[in-house]
């Protein structure tokens, strides 16, 4: 390799590699397959979450103006679809956590602050402010306001958010793919007999494990002529840096058939580095 080549800064080498990549299109996956994936669309709720005012605790839906005092119990509401009576002056409705707050009520008093007088009456022992123990409609997510943006990584909480707005699938960026090509005349695959002057390849399994641990999926461990067509079909991209010496200047086997463009440069980080990128 000619010593007259200009020094290439590592950041410039990275830009050179990135410039060769062609983005692959986003894909639609179910929520059950979205964990660890990267969002490729903006999530805008079509309805508020929660979609209605609901009770944050078991207790009684009341009018703040009637407190404290003895109130007539006009019904009961559990979580789920139900037709609710309006709460009028001097009245209360028994509610369970998650139940819709009935019309006319502006607070929910937890049952610990009440005393049951009979099946039809309850005593509320203290005053509360409007909105007490009520989760308002849209308190978590407002309709029409973006809730998640492209680039968000899906954790369990993001999947729960999508389910809360009624989504069953989502568009995500394609999984990253990587290939490890190990070079060296002295290398022998694990399990193969060692000839004089040979050593077992340990870097290949090590790099593959590091890639997998970093959530790079669908790893192809080794390219060869018989894998070229398959690698192109799956849209594989590859970048790498290969140390060169006076004794070893060959391209790693399989690179030429994959259409890689080789650019010989000298990096400041090493004496002689060959930077490669897929331009196919």
What descriptors fit this protein?
280 residues; alpha+beta; six-stranded mixed sheet; four-stranded mixed sheet; 4 helices; disordered C terminus
Task: Provide structural commentary.
The protein is of the alpha+beta class and 280 residues long. It contains 4 helices and 16 strands. Strands 7-4-6-5-9-8 form a 6-stranded mixed β-sheet, with no helix packed on it. β15 (260-267) and β16 form a beta hairpin. The chain is elongated, with a radius of gyration of 32 Å. The two termini are 25 Å apart.
The dominant shape is elongated
Helix amount, in percent?
10-25%
Order of helices and strands: EHEEEEEEEEEHEEEHHEEE
Extended strand count: 16
Using the CA coordinates, give the radius of gyration.
32 Å
Specify the structural class. Answer: alpha+beta
Give the averaged pLDDT, no decimals. Answer: 79
SS summary, helix count: 4
Strand content: 15-25%
N-C termini distance: 25 Å
* Unreliable parts: 215-280
Strand order of the largest sheet: 7-4-6-5-9-8
| Main pleated sheet | 6 strands, mixed
Condensed summary:
With 280 residues, the chain is α+β, with helices and mostly antiparallel strands.
Question: What's the arrangement of secondary structure elements?
Answer:
Elements: E1 7-8, H1 10-19, E2 27-30, E3 54-55, E4 59-62, E5 69-77, E6 91-95, E7 107-110, E8 114-118, E9 121-124, E10 134-135, H2 156-164, E11 169-172, E12 187-188, E13 199-200, H3 203-213, H4 228-233, E14 239-243, E15 260-267, E16 273-278
Parallel strand pairs: 1-15, 5-6, 12-13
Antiparallel strand pairs: 2-11, 3-10, 4-6, 4-7, 5-9, 8-9, 14-16, 15-16
